[in-house]
Amino acid sequence: MAIQNSGPTLVQGARATQSTIFLKILMAASGAVFIAFVLLHMYGNLKAFNGHDAYNEYAEHLRELGTPMLPHSGALWIIRAVLILSLVVHVYCAATLWKRAKKARTVRYQVKKHTGAIFASRMMRWGGVTLLLFIIWHLLNFTIGKVNVTGGATNDPYNLVVDSFSTWWLTVIYLVAMAMLGAHLHHGIWSATQTLGLTNSDRTRKLAKNSAFTLAVVIAGGFSLVPIFVLAGVINK
Amino acid sequence: MKLTLNIWRQTDANDAGAMHTYQVDDVSPDMSFLEMLDVLNEDLNAKDEEPIAFDSDCREGICGMCSLMINGEPHGPEVTTTCQLHMRSFKDGDTITIEPWRASAFPVLKDLCVDRSAFDRIIQAGGYISVNTGSAPEAHSVPVPRDDAMRAFNVATCIGCGACVAACPNGSASLFMGAKITHLGELPQGQPERDSRVTNMVAQHDHEGFGGCTNIGECAAACPKEIPLDVISQLNKDLRTAIKHGH
Fold it and tell me: What family does the Swiss-Prot or TrEMBL record give for this protein (chain B) (predicted)?
């Protein structure tokens, strides 16, 4: 350690809730909401294998969840509110930490090896941006705008799914997005357990990394099944 | 061995700096990396050129003074410090790029020397325990479970060289902090200040301009003392506990 004592002084009145680690904890917590969401969403999508009526009944059931205690679509809107809040928190923390990381090294190395890093961990930020763009398109496609790229009807969820994924380029977009989601989850799930302080030994770290990989494959793979089987003509109208 | 060296030269903190190329002949594979630079500096001295400034002290791998980014890896290709790296790890005719640690919190002072006093201030903020001075207490008066003692000892091997910061894509010093937090937090003597320690050290870390951790793991791969990644989990857990206790 060097002897020179330049400008910076000791921080007075430090608050743990104003630290970079607190931002990371918020990212992990909001990320956990998304993990639960994509797991359930993926499971729901697989209803497409049960045919037109089962899939549409599931979609309608989501709106009747909790009725008559809750109004029609009430539970769905509660879930949506939690997801929107989580998204705002997740993106805000990511942007703040990204900006900070850029400032922490303003002069880049001429030569830099990335020993210890993997593709998934190095892709977190740009992968996150890709997923954000995908989510916007996905909501326009199936929720808010209901875009049928084949020009057909949009009022029948099952038929919209079949029409959409019969279009090869749309299926490609979704499969690329699922690869990005898998990579994001692969690093993100392990990173969240580490940030929450659950991996304090070699054993738990390996367990967290293996679980993250498995979950990422199950979720991204599960999501990919419906588009692939629609394109292959197995799931049809 | 004949080598081509691309070395960062910078006259002082305000200079822009640039890479310079040097040829060194007659390098013995048994030389340490720093001895190789000593030979180059003697050569530069003989030619009335300014020798290359680099940090070193014990040259035994225990003080944490030496640094250097060698071909994109802190302390070079072996798991050891630069002073304990030998030229046999390179081949005749190799080109070696040597750069200083790059982090805003570690400003370059000259050539390959950076100011790492940010680490000193992180230690000053919380890397200590309060004990009564005077005669040494009876060692057996405070029992320490074996596993706790081993973990504390293993991470206490951190020499504060800054390789973790140099390797980190975010310029974070989390592995360094994690090592100190775990070292002191595993022992009974470290308990009274446990919450304030993590709060103050992390606040100082952020204040110095280090980045946030994204758990990529390049730090642990670069650490010459093989500090494991689980110390960062410990750091995060201690901070979470401190928040719960109202810090």
Answer: Belongs to the succinate dehydrogenase/fumarate reductase iron-sulfur protein family.
Taking CA atoms, what residue in A is nearest to B171? A104
Whether A116 and chain B come into contact, CB under 8 Å, resolves to yes
In terms of Cβ atoms closer than 10 Å to its own Cβ (0-12, 13-18, 19+), residue A201 is middle
Cβ atoms A160, A154 nearer than 8 A: yes
Decide which of 3.40.1280.10, 3.10.20.30, 3.40.50.300, 1.10.760.10 is the CATH code for B3-110: 3.10.20.30
Instruction: For the sheet with B73-74, list strands across it.
Output: B18-24, B3-9, B95-99, B69-70, B73-74
| Alpha-carbon dihedral angle through residues A163, A168, A174, A178, given to the nearest 10 degrees | 130
On chain B, the residues whose CB falls within 8 A of the CB of A5 are: 117, 120
Interface of A with B in 81-110 (CB under 8 A): 97, 100-101, 103-110
With an 8 Å Cβ cutoff, are B236 and A195 in contact? yes
> Which residues of chain B does CATH 3.10.20.30 include?
3-110
Q: Which CATH architecture has domain B116-131+141-244?
A: Orthogonal Bundle (1.10)
C-beta neighbour count of B25 within 10 angstroms: 9
Q: Which residues touch B119 (CB under 8 Å, ≥6 apart)?
A: A1, B160, B162, B173, B176
Local confidence band at A26 (pLDDT 50, 70, 90 cut-offs): very high
CATH 1.10.1060.10 positions along chain B are 116-131+141-244
Please indicate whether, in this complex, the C-beta atoms of A19 and B202 are within 8 angstroms of each other.
yes
pLDDT confidence bin for A78, thresholds 50/70/90: very high
Q: Is the ipTM of this complex over 0.85?
A: yes
CA A45 to CA A33: how far, in whole Å? 18
Based on the number of CB atoms within 10 Å of its own CB, is A8 exposed (0-12), middle (13-18) or buried (19 or more)? middle
Torsion of CA A192, B160, A96, A133, to 10 degrees: -50
Single-letter amino acid, residue B100:
P
**How, if at all, do strands B95-99 and B3-9 pair?**
parallel
Q: State residue A146's pLDDT score.
A: 87
